[in-house]
Amino acid sequence: xxxxxxxxxxxxxxRRSARQSAAQASAAAGYVSRAEEALGLLPQLTDLDExxxxxxxxxxxxxxxxxxxxxxxxx
Length: 75
What we know:
Helices cover about 85% and strands about 0% of the residues. With about 80 residues, it is mainly α. The longest helix is centred in the N-terminal third of the chain and has 40 residues. It is rod-shaped. The chain starts with a helix and ends in a 6-residue tail after the last helix.
């Protein structure tokens, strides 16, 4: 029976990890969606400063998405 208890603990940890991974993927997808929305503004902008600002915003959203996906799993 001790092996069963150990397996149960492993299964619980794996389930928590999968939930966290799904939550991280969902959050990252939200950031990517915001970046895509910002990129959609570029064709309407002619001022170079405005275009540069939108590009910086896109880079920030994508950095947030990357950071979300690289969070370590809790123990």
